Amino acid sequence: MADIQDKTKLGSPSPGSSPRLARKEASPTPSGGGGVSPFSQRKREAETLQEAITATALPGDPPLLPGELLSFIAHDITYLDPFLGARTGSLYITDYKMYFKSPSDDKAEEYILHVPLGVISHVEKMGRSRSKGENAYGLEIFCKDMRTLKFAHKQETHGRRGMYERLQIVSFPISYGKNPFAYSFKQSYPTNGWEVYDPVRELKRLSVGAENVPWRISETNSDYSMCETYPTILGVPASVNDETLVLASQFRSKGRMPVLSWLHPVTHASITRSSQPLVGASRKRSKEDEDYLSAILKANKYGKKLYVMDARPKINAYANIAMGGGYELDEAYPNMDFSFLDIGNIHVMRDSLSKLQDICYPDVDDQRWYSSLEATHWLDHIKTVLGGAVKVAEVIERQRSSVLVHCTDGWDRTAQLTALAMLMLDPFYRTIQGFEIVVEKEWISFGHKFSQRLGHGDRNHSDDQRAPIFLQFIDCVWQMTVQFPYAFEFNEHFLVTILDHLYSCLFGTFIGNCEKQREKLKVRVKTMSLWSFINSQVK
Amino acid sequence: MAANSIAKLPGELVVAEAHRTQCLIQYTENQESGGKGGGGTAVSGTLSCTNYCFHFEPDAAQGLARLGQYISSQLAGSRRVPLGCVREIYMIVGGRKKILEGHATLPRKISEIEIICVDLRRLVFSVKQCPKNEASSILNALVRHTNPSSLSLLFAFDFARATRQRRPSQTNDSAPLFLGVRDWQRELTRLGVAGDQWRISDSNKEFLICDSLCPFLVVPANSRDNTLDYVASLHHGNRLPVWCWSHPNTGVSLTRGGAPSIDDPSEAPDPSYMYAVSMARNIGHQIENKGTATLDITRTCGTVWDLRSAFSNMRDLSMPGSPQELAGLDRKWLTGMESAGWLPMVRNCLRLAKTVSQNLCIDHRPVFLQEEGGRDLSCVVSSLAQLMMDPHYRSISGFQALVQKDWVAMGHPFSTRHHLITKPPSLSPDSVTDEPSVEAPTFLLFLDCVWQLSLQFPSAFEFSEFYLLQLHSLTYASLYGTFVFNSPKICLQVAMLSRHSQFFGSDEGVPDSNETCYEGLLRPAWGHWRDNLTREDREYCHNPLYYIFGNSEARYDFNTSDPLPMYDQFSSIFDDTAPNLVVGGSYGLYNRDSPMKDLHVAGRGKTSHHYQQGLLLPETSGCSVKPWLGFFARHIPDFQEHFAEQRRVREREVRLVKDVRRLKDTLNELELSVGAITSDLTSFVGAILAARERERRNRMSSLSPDHAHRPRLSAMLVPSDDVEVRGSEVNSSSKTLPTKVQSLAEFTETLYMFSDDRGTPSGLRKSADGAVGGASPGPGNALSPGSGRSPITKTRLRVTRTESIESSSLHSRTPGPASGHIPLLANKILIREQNVGPEEEERGGETAGKRI
Asked: Does the N terminus or the C terminus of chain A have fewer Cβ atoms within 10 A?
């Protein structure tokens, strides 16, 4: 029972916004990791450095995480809460969070707002120094988690500029040549989340490399020469040797050749993933790719066909031909079934989310909630993605045939589809640990470009490469938990915690674009894993 | 012959039979996936009609299976639907559809009969092959008994006559009817109402003051009976403001009545009467007198006409005839539903009821609810407000008392609104003429609102969604006298008349009061109606969460006149260690402090604080009022599996709650008996635990590693009843047992532990249909959610095959989840598997044998 009780308290350093949570967080004092000597030394230094700043701070404000430094204080600032009205208090900025506290008075209870800086998308000034009207002059902070925060300053003090500049520097460290806070976070956890996923162990769990299983583990990509954005360890058909692999990879965009995601333990029907073939306007063919696909087909003794599912709408796939990509030519691949799953690209999803954001925050129009929800098409997209994953799962489960999923690059829609299908097929992934493995494997190791899609620490908020693809995946998982309430070990709170830390930059889990880059950034060495935090709360 | 074999109710007679009828199943989910589209299947059999319901009996057993639950109602039994639940009957003649009414002459060549039910179901029977005379006679019988021309022809009377002898002689244990003085007295006592504030007046005994109200009225203590007549004349329909509820602490009251009549606008409602209403409060509570808050329902919530059109729009959205039609609806469903106007009505009612509760409980201000007729939406709002304020009404008995008090006794025109008879009762024409004689689902609106509340406060109600649905059918079924009259007056008149007309034979003694007269004529539904359900269904009426987190310990017995506990004591009723439960309903399962909270629920404000005081203040913003799929999509084939899954989940919860209770009891016994030797016991338990741990390690290590890491295919999404915790074999201390399940989230987790064999190093289960080489993994392995969007979603939850759905459901032949459960409980409690399938036997035997 003990672990269950803990689970409900999960989320200690969760970037929530409400007074209740913030208070809860204050209780485990930041001295949690105080036993480590280099850390305590650094802490001492920090203390002297901070003395000047903290002189004006109230005792205990703000509660700091190990390794967190306070860098800015502004008093007499008004936060305009869209629901509870304006509150005046002090604002603290550390290198991890923005912390606003309004003391309790006769009219209202104590109010605390707590925003990790990673969540900030951009900051804008509102009003001019001569603006008339109460609370018209200040800062407007746009967040990645659908909120918009408004702070009002007193015009006469001109405190706005200092806060604006401070926020720019600490919120977008990468743009200023610094590391995100995950590199300074010094909490220690009893479990090491970096050890949750071991590609070899996971492939062995799928019985890859075992006797009579026509799949093997390949280390051809150990120096990332075959494919930069793939992990070093790959599952490939046993009948294909490493040299052929390298040749076959050349026909796929960015070298992302079909590799194993999941293997049915009985029928050996497989889910494989890749990027688009480099067909191009000259309708190129590749003998190696054709042989490779038929090797995947033959690795499953029941399937008469290999189902190739292109996640894109057909028109998009067609448009890619002009740019050297495209889709597999029917005549080149006998015994294959080609279909398009009609899922929009990252730009479509981003626009849809931004519409959703508009109708959700801060005000919901009661009269038109459902029709405006329908007009955002967010649910339509969720439906298409889930529907695509159901198709994959049904082919594996009912027709016992193998499926190859790809889109353009094979790191957005493809990751959604394979990960969801795996959740549908394999109960192991519906446990907490299993879900962590799915995220580590299908998303992180196969090169979903987290840093780029989320824009960690980057001030260029209008970058059109940002997109809520992972958020959409989590939404799909949530839909499944609603439909099958007891099939999952985790609950909504677990999913929301993941999303919170997707933006918070407290953990290194979602930093970087691919395994190669993460190695360069020494993410595993220098930062904590989100799973360390979660698993030490669970168990 | 087929019809004779069915179990009929007492007093039920077969009126007509049509052999060789075909039931046309329009489409089922299976066909849709088979790609046949709109083409349906036909099952031939006998359609019969009794004076209570219609019944379809297939000729062959094969048809029985194909029919499944297609024609069924839990209330009347399988393949039976009460005629009261029939809304419209159409006949199809030469490809044209015609509505069938009262005395129309029947054409010769009828090809099909289409029956539309009040629960949004469309049933089509083909009578092409059935003998001519039988076809027309069954049509006649259907029409005649569905909408008889007078009240006394309703089945409720036949049923009451036939069961008269079995009626319990004592009426003490029955639910309150609020037709006599005693029930009102009890209610006043329960709420601690002081006698110098309110009194019960019998001046309406002859229904001379108001003919739509009950004979006894609760009015301010200082009003005189001879002035009530005058006060009544100032309100629409003579419905003077009468007492509904008082806050047990402050004594501030909720009253309702008709709007001031427009005939004499110069005269305001009698000021002295209303002043007395506003002043009524308990001594010792010196609250500033803010005057009465008068809330006009017609202006905020609309009229029955709005309700009627909103419902008919919803109906159009909820009855697709084919998968193609459903797909079309699905595309624009959210928009369509919003423009239907039903949800805004639900929202407005909830919002107004919330205002009422806030006025009474937070501002301590009395509330007067006025509505033009005072008999429709004011029933909805006043009873909703009382549900929000008073935990007593959230139990099953309390809820029934509430419906009786605020609907039946206050004269909600059930007969008219539910269109039970074709014309006004000839026995005693309703003299209230200004009330619109329109058919409208007012009671359904109330049930929908209650469902919204139960969605937001999942553990606050003793009853389940299923109970609400059954209650809805019951109000139409005209099985009992409770819901067949327009007002208590008509009810009592019918009762008196029938007594003289030898309705009950000569042995019936002269009833000593109106109330017993009513009892004698028609059994009120409350004590008995659930006897018509099967045992499983009765159980399914209960909400298991209520017994764990809700108000289960403090159960109020209606027969005792214990006053309601004061409000500040309520905090102990609700477990304040589970704050996560509180806000935003099902989302309350989780921490709502996430930045995403505004996506789900506009859950802000101080609900939690009030909830602990027993006050429910629901969110009423646009996104927190949801379409009631359980009602509106109940008979869409694509949703069937979803509802079946829901039911399986609930039933599992019920079992778990039972187990927890049994364990609790056993523990208590143990603690009592063990007493002094506790320390011995502790060490004993320690030894057992150590042994088990050793055992577990041995078992784990005996498996080859790759085997241990195989995906566990036998993980059943559909729990089968294989885990039985035997309470008697508990040998552990209370700390480690799940007796202290404290929050809903935790409870869910516990269920997860049960529903999935996590930690199981089990092997693979062969599929039920014996696929080649045992190759296909077992049913229930793959989750295939409908490619659903949340609201309409094709939320069909298909477990892989139909056979497997059936087999893995309740009475499964399927092998249960592989043995070797190591949920948390297993360390301490013996878990016994039943239903270990043949394939499992070996492995199961192996591990089970090693258990202690």
From this structure: C
